[in-house]
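Regression report. Comparing outputs from two consecutive submissions.

Submission 1:
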Amino acid sequence: MGIVDVAAALLSALLHAGWNAAVKANRNPAQAMTAQMLLGAVLVVPALLWSGLPDRAAWIWILASTLMNVLTISALLRAYELGGFGLVYPVMRAVAVLLVVPMAAVLTGEKFGPAALAGIIVIALSLAVLSLDAARNQAVTLKALGWTLAAGVGTAAYIMCDAQGVRASSNPWAYGFVVSITNAAAMCWRQRNQGAPWRLLSGQWPAALPIAVASMASYLLILWVWSHAPIAPAAALRDTSSIFAILIAVVWLKEPFTRTRIVAVLMAAAAIPLLRLD
């Protein structure tokens, strides 16, 4: 991976950590999630006039990604109800990192050198360290763990759908814009019992707008990377978002920077140059 790809994946990770933390901090995470997806869709509709639609070959992946995204969000929101952000988020991302490696090998024939594979494993281990740190401070129920694992499996699945889809599309931006719209439509259907879509924005849009911008930027950046760079290493870099979430908590929320967290941050930092070697 080139330095520009690494930088784009890391920026995507930072934005991803920020908007997920903002959704979790909201009084109604499900409504906040829906609101930011709706606003994101509204923002990208005019952009479709510039990008045009993706190639026909990408549409099967758009549908698959949308389905997996809704299932993943449903599992994630349920996991957030049962467990803390500090536990659920890194476990979910660690599961996704580990699953994307064999999935990319089977579905795309992607091969990794020993350095890249070591880097992916180190990032997954750093996320596991964060999870263990969070587990010490709270009770972990089997239900919470089950929903978290389900969200991790779903995350790996939609990563592969998006990676395949963006490569089948002639334009990564067009693919990202369309998926953002279909995801918003699917989320509105999921929340249909809460009323009409515009009612879901009531009282939410001032907070949801910056979240939507961060979410869209994060998504488009990683799609651009996946359009030409190896899938699994790029996905692993993006999943350093858990590390960024810890740093955000330490700097802005004044949470303690424990030894365990320091170890996790150093492990993730050490993995980055490994991913560039292959």
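Submission 2:
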Amino acid sequence: MFRLVEQLLQSNSDLGMILQTLFSLSFIIYLFYAQRIQAMSMLRQVEGTLRKVKALRDKGRSVSIETINEVGRPENDPTKDVDRFMEHFLIPPVDLDPAGIVGKLGQLLNVRENTFEDEVRAMAPHASDSEVNNLENLLEASLALNVYYKVIRHFYLLGKKTMNIYVIMQIHMILPMIVREIEAYSAALQAFKNGMPIGDSVGPLVAAKMMHGHEYEEVAREMVAAEVPYAGRTLIVTKAKGPGGSVGKPGDAIENLINKRAEGKKVNAVIMVDAAGKLEGEETGGVAEGVGAAIGGIGVEKYKIEEAVKAHNIPLYAVAIKQDISHVVAPMVEELFKATDRAVEVVKNLVEEKTKEGDVVIVAGIGNTVGIGQ
């Protein structure tokens, strides 16, 4: 009996020593290779995301080719043209001397827009104007997916090549936010293919609801405006011309409308309505009021608007419809559609509170007007 107990104790002692030795070895290995192990773990996660992004990029490419063949009915296979489009880039002007940089940037953007339109018309010769705009947006979404894929692939391959954890961490830490944007652009493919309103269309939708039933005229490139009487005031409601996907030139439109009335009855206020990014915890479709030029983009149109209102001392108000980054280019959800009705009421309240009878107010619906007419 005692001999059996001794044997058990001896075996337990040997097992404990083995376990202790293994633990010590593991600790030593981890001490020297912890960073490499962590880098390999992060690389595997980035690699999984990279495969997912590649699938979305390839989907964007195939949807673009399919839609061009379906809508544009080209004589030749547009695959090579689509691949060339997806590699397009823009070199910004030098900013060492910032004076005049907005004009240079605006000129480059005009060239870019004209180039894109010409290329789409060449790829889809039988497409209508609205279809050309939608195809252009579809190809730009595919281009964005391609850029995301190449940037993630760059950091993945560079990290794998150098095994430098700081290189790998740069992409790994921001990957969750990037994936949300990528998924939104992927959802945008269907919206632009079928001409469906997207989250960024809330501004033009507000303007369309206010100008519905009134005569409109073109006031700038791809921008229309209509005079709408309300509460003794004259509202000049402007938006990008639809229903093709376009943001137009709201800066030129507002500047032209202000200058047109400079010699007569001047504009007394400008109210801009646009989508705005929401913080986590805020409600999708929340409507907020503020002041300033409610417009995103690279800044050229915003500059024009600010210069125009400053020159004539016109107060500038803003109405924002809040949404997540995943909603901006994805098909419009019900919460955002309902928010446009509340935004119309907010605009009307601003008109009544900030102006008096007989005043002229410009109301600008800012954003992509895909799927939204006048």
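Expected: both submissions complete independently.
Actual: both completed, but the second showed a warning that disappeared on reload.
Relevant detail on submission 2: The mean pLDDT is 89.
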